[in-house]
Structures are given as structure tokens and as C-alpha cells.
Specification:
Length: 330
């Protein structure tokens, strides 16, 4: 049984211009011990999956279908107390902007005590900071968030996320706002600490090179659906969805710090309701008639198109080894 699971999840945001369907039957699992990279262009739905998995969606969001489960238990059936306990004890979060995520009015030591309990000794707090390789933990414990660099603040956030030994950590672009010089070491720390703790890690990122390096499995999100998922090595070596191919061809690890993926001609869709075809069809170089008419079925693959349970693709052409490409893409 997967530790985290989104199953056919539909999430809509109410906006001034009507409902936006951010997730359109998205399915994703994260097992114990996995580092799952979640990639896709801006607006594809990565953050919405992450926040839905902890039922931390903003007030204008509505879960309109499907289910989210942690350790096999549906979050849709949990009461507020149970949800709070789940978020405190079993899930950890790391966000893009560490200084903005920390409470600006409280010293780091106090914020760690909120997580670990009032009676926690200074030595225990300092040990938590040593584990995230902060070199002067006593000083950091006395500091306010604005007195730390972005990299130090993100180390503190990682310490906070892992302090109660959660079984899964959800990290949404944890290095996107950091200086290029520290991004690598922060990611190494995050992956290393979650591994040491035996926790699963879900990593939303625009940095394909980092995803390739650190993730065991990758999920590609487009138009609110997970359109392809496979072990990382396999996904990068033999991508099957035309969207994944375009993504990898257009950004072969060349994106710069803070840069968003925007490599493919045309713009991603903003869905208003259920979509009758494949959301990528309008931009796809391989699209055939069925792609605009029917929702693609889930295919499990290997290189010959035969069953392969850990490589899943949502594409009408999934079983065609190399679909013919049109000359031009709109
Ligand atoms: N609070 C909100 N209110 C209204 N619409 C929202 C809200 N949050 C997200 N959306 C919309 O939902 C869709 C999915 O957004 P989401 O933030 O999940 O994408 P993302 O893949 O995380 O993008 P990015 O890479 O830019 O972080 C987008 O169309 C976005 O505009
Ligand atoms: Mg996001």
C-alpha cells in the first residue's frame, strides 16, 4: 500500500472568472523509501497535488472528485483534530520561500520547541540543527528568521519538517528561491535527511537535472493529470508521452536557477471543467483524431509496448513505439 496516494483527484478553484479545474483526475502514489519527482510546466497542478495530499488547500478550493489517502486512510473522512495530528506527526513540509514560511516574530529555538514540545532541552534543539549541518547551532537557535540567509533558513525549515520524524516529506520547489551556489547542497541535505529518517520524499521541481540526479521515480503533470510516471532512469532514457519527450528535449538540464519550464510551443491549458480529450492534443506533434475526442486511457508499458507495471502513460499513442510527428506544432 502506498504511503501517499491521490486517486482520480479533481480539484477546482473558485475564481472571479469562474471555476478553474486545477486537477482533472490526477493519480499519484508515493511509497516508503521513494524520492518522487513531480515535474511539469507552471500551472500544471504540481502544488495543488501536494497541498491536497495534506488537505491544506486554500479556502477557494474544492475537492470535486476522487480521494486522497495517507497510509491507506482517506483524508476526506478525517475530522479536524485527526488532520492536525496527521500534519504534525506524519507529514513534513518544505516550501519555496523559507524565510516567508518561518514565523518572523519568533526565534528559531522557540519555533523548534513549538514542534518538539516546550520541555525540549537546548541540547536537543541544537542537535536538530547540527543534523542539517548548521555550523553554529547555538547562535541560530537565538536568531530570528530575517537574521538568516536563505540557505540557512531552508536548513532550519528542513530541520522543522523532519523534527517529529514524519514518514513523508512534501517539498514544493525547495531550492527555487535560493542562491545558485547553495541549491545543490540544500537538495542533497533534504534527500539525505529524508533517507536517513526512512521517510518518503515528494519533490516538486522545475529543475530536471536535479530530479534526474536525486529522484527514484518521476511523475509528469500536465493539465491537472499525471500523464506519465516511471522510475527516473527509465523516464529520462525512454520517455513515452509526447509531452514528456518535448519537455526533456526542450530543457536538457539547461534551465537556470529560478527559471520556470516553458520550453514547448503554445501555452498550457486552463481547464474550466471536465475535458473530453487529451489536454496536450493542441500542442502535440503526434496528435491524431482520437486525441481531441476521447480521454486517453492509462497504459502500462515497456519498450515493446508490453505490460510494465511501473511505467504508466496516459496517451492514445502510448503503445506506438515512435509515433509519427507532424512537421509543425501550432
Ligand atoms: N489559490 C488559487 N486560486 C485560483 N486558482 C489557483 C490557485 N492556486 C492555483 N490555481 C490554479 O490552478 C492551476 C494549477 O496551479 P498549481 O499552483 O497547482 O500549479 P504548479 O504546477 O504548482 O505551478 P508552478 O510550477 O507555477 O508552481 C493553475 O491554473 C493555477 O492558476
Ligand atoms: Mg507550484
Amino acid at each position: 500500500m502506498p504511503y501517499l496516494e491521490a486517486r482520480d483527484l479533481v480539484v477546482e478553484y473558485a475564481t472571479r472568472h469562474g471555476a478553474v479545474r486545477a486537477l482533472d483526475e490526477a493519480s499519484l502514489t508515493v511509497d516508503a523509501g521513494e524520492v518522487v519527482g513531480v515535474v511539469g510546466e507552471s500551472g500544471s497542478g504540481k502544488s495543488t497535488i501536494g497541498t491536497a495530499l495534506a488537505r491544506l488547500l486554500p479556502g477557494n478550493a474544492r475537492i470535486a472528485g476522487g480521494d486522497v489517502r495517507v497510509d491507506g486512510v482517506s483524508l476526506l473522512e478525517m475530522g479536524d483534530d485527526e488532520l492536525r495530528a496527521l500534519r504534525r506527526d506524519r507529514l513534513g513540509f518544505v516550501f519555496q520561500d523559507p524565510i516567508g514560511t518561518l514565523d518572523p516574530t519568533a526565534r528559531i529555538g522557540r519555533q523548534l520547541r513549538w514542534v518538539l514540545g516546550k520541555g525540549t532541552s537546548d541540547a536537543t534543539l541544537a542537535a536538530q540543527l547540527e543534523r542539517v549541518r548548521l555550523s553554529d547551532p547555538e547562535r541560530v537557535l537565538r536568531a530570528f528568521p530575517h537574521q538568516l540567509s536563505g540557505g540557512m533558513a531552508q536548513r532550519v525549515s528542513i530541520a522543522l519538517a523532519l523534527a517529529r520524524e514524519p514518514r513523508a516529506v512534501i517539498a514544493d520547489e525547495p531550492t527555487a528561491s535560493l542562491d545558485a551556489s547553495v541549491r545543490g547542497e540544500i537538495l542533497e541535505l533534504l534527500v539525505g535527511r529524508t533517507r536517513e529518517a526512512g521517510a518518503a520524499l515528494m519533490l516538486m521541481s522545475h529543475d530536471l537535472r536535479a530530479v534526474r540526479r536525486w529522484c527514484t521515480r518521476v511523475a509528469v503533470v500536465y493539465g491537472g493529470r499525471v500523464v506519465e510516471t516511471a522510475p527516473a532512469e527509465r523516464l529520462f532514457a525512454a520517455p513515452r508521452h509526447p509531452y514528456t519527450r518535448a519537455l526533456l528535449e526542450a530543457a536538457p538540464g539547461a534551465e537556470r536557477p529560478g527559471e520556470r519550464l516553458r520550453p514547448i510551443a503554445g501555452i498550457p491549458p486552463v481547464l474550466r471543467g471536465e475535458f473530453g480529450g487529451c489536454a496536450f492534443a493542441a500542442r502535440c506533434a503526434c496528435a491524431v483524431e482520437a486525441c481531441t475526442a476521447q480521454r486517453p486511457p492509462l497504459a502500462r508499458l515497456d519498450d515493446d509496448g508490453a505490460a510494465q507495471p511501473d511505467h504508466e502513460v496516459l496517451c492514445h499513442l502510448a503503445t506506438v513505439a515512435t509515433p509519427p510527428r507532424k512537421e509543425r506544432v501550432a
